[in-house]
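To illustrate the input format used throughout this study, we show a single complete record. The first block contains the structure-token representation of the backbone; no residue identities are included at this stage. The design step must infer an amino acid for every position from geometry alone.
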């Protein structure tokens, strides 16, 4: 099979590609966030922004992963964030349409905004500030979903949308300034720096280990009968950020102290996935506990942090 994977050199893409070694893959990535990418012999790499990319080549699968998913990163680059999730979605959809490919999009739990129903099911419409600081990400992901469903309705394209929730694991960028909570806390703990908590730390997230994400993604790609489906790929187990900080301090044996900072604007107070649809359609649920996943992630971080 031939795959086109936008953002294939990034955190999620680099893990996914490991499980697609029997296929021919073209990766389009601008390396804006990618850092730990191994170029296997079945992969051709094109360094370009997906919104500028065009080709007449044909593919069996088109997977659009390219995005800046870190809030601290995307709020610095809001225009670029919106372009990969609008023009980039359009370009990849057109390539899929001309190839009659299966199209898969990694949307985000961010489409739910400050959800009022936790764990959140796919049929919840979301509560999103359209002009807030996070809107460049939330609204462009929502636009992408609407555009993808339009291709499904107008052209009958085989589209599949997943909404990942806080995926973590090895190969998240280790540099603390990048900002995802798991990688930042591990970095700070291993360096003996203060662990920075925004707000009171009572906000929650439900974390998914990257190998569980890969398993769900492969099932979404290769299961028949998923045309037009939108599926949460996440965990239903909520963890408070303060509890995550304490777990990481314990697991690393760190002497780091906790430092409280002002809350981030529009930071969703709670987040967890209702995964009944993933269980039903994919026969999938996460297997790796937070403690187990953190241990594996910490081991990897120890190897890359100087
Ligand atoms: N967070 C924190 N300290 C940090 C980074 C993040 O307290 O140094 C919190 C953040 O406020 C949010 C949660 O951790 O409530 C998850 O943040 P992340 O940037 O990983 O992504 P999000 O889930 O908000 O998209």
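Output of the design step:
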């Amino acid at each position: 099979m031939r795959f086109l994977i936008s953002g294939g050199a990034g955190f999620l893409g680099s893990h996914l590609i490991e499980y697609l070694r029997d296929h021919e893959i073209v990766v389009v990535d601008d390396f804006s966030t990618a850092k730990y990418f191994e170029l296997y012999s079945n992969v051709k790499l094109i360094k370009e922004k997906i919104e500028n990319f065009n080709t007449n080549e044909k593919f069996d699968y088109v997977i659009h992963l390219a995005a800046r998913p870190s809030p601290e990163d995307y709020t610095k680059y809001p225009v670029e964030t919106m372009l990969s999730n609008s023009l980039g979605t359009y370009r990849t959809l057109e390539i899929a349409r001309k190839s009659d490919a299966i199209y898969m999009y990694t949307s985000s739990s961010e489409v739910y905004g400050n959800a009022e129903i936790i764990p959140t099911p796919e049929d919840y419409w979301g509560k999103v500030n359209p002009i807030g600081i996070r809107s460049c990400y939330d609204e462009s992901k929502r636009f992408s979903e609407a555009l993808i469903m339009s291709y499904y309705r107008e052209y009958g394209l085989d589209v599949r949308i997943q909404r990942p929730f806080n995926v973590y694991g090895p190969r998240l960028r280790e540099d603390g300034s990048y900002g995802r909570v798991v990688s930042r806390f591990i970095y700070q703990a291993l360096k003996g720096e203060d662990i920075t908590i925004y707000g009171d730390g009572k906000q929650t997230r439900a974390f998914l280990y990257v190998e569980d994400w890969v398993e769900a993604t492969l099932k979404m790609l290769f299961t028949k009968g998923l045309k037009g489906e939108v599926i949460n790929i996440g965990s239903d187990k909520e963890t408070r950020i303060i509890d995550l900080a304490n777990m990481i301090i314990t697991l690393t044996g760190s002497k780091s102290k906790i430092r409280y900072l002002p809350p981030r604007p529009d930071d969703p107070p709670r987040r967890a996935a209702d995964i009944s649809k993933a269980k039903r359609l994919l026969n999938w649920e996460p297997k790796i506990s937070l403690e187990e996943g953190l241990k594996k992630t910490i081991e990897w971080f120890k190897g890359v942090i100087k």
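Structural context for interpreting the output: The chain has one domain: 2-304. The chain has a mean pLDDT of 97.
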